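chain below, 254 aa
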Amino acid sequence: MERDDLASLAGFFAAGPFAPGGAVQLGEDAAHHMRVRRLAAGDRIYLTDGAGTQATGAIVRLAKHAADVAIDGVAHRGRVPAVHLLVPIADRDRMLWLAEKCTEMGATSWRPVLWHRSRSVSPRGEGASFAARVHARMVSALVQSHSPWLPVAHEDALLEQAILALPDDGTRLVLDASGEPIANVPLHVPVTIAVGPEGGVEPAERRSVSDAGFRPVSLGANVLRFETAAIAALAVVRSALAARPEAIPERIDV
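prediction:
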């Protein structure tokens, strides 16, 4: 099952498990979406669980509150090399846009950080209810992009907490207009990209990330919005890692 095989099929997020010849029941939201798309029994769709498994199947029953799907094909894809994002707690709408795009670009994890200058933003995206909106946006982007893996979305954290939670090894990058070009930096997996808030990183925070082994890197001479900078850096890193043989994930068709 190639990703191109899914292009013509309506997609849905489901917890699974998926097995050829088995069945999955989807809930009211999926059933409503099927009716909006004018799907009916017999139509083929694809499913993803966000944990590497994708399936194709046919609708066998579409009711008001549920839909039953018969599975006919399953594939599991391994993870690509890990790239973690530390994103600023910032404007809600711009964070939601970034959550969508980092899912499409294959971010491994997403951790919102409360930088000093995050505190002056209003309305800012934080808390449990906003985290639920981030998850929903990521799921939608996952289905649309046919990506097999949903980013792990961590809880909001102070900078010190975020640093302590990082993997011990790998490359740590912090976006800084005065840093060296990001394309010139050798990468060792896992890669962590820290993105500061609007207005920049305070001197004490700069020392903290430097002491934690973060290397300042630049995306060019212009000052970018945080969401632009984050997705541009993720794209550069993903492109560099994709050139390596180990970046091709194993695919197991069941």
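The two ends are 10 Å apart (CA to CA). Residues 83-247 form a domain with the Alpha/beta knot fold (CATH 3.40.1280.10).
thats it, cya
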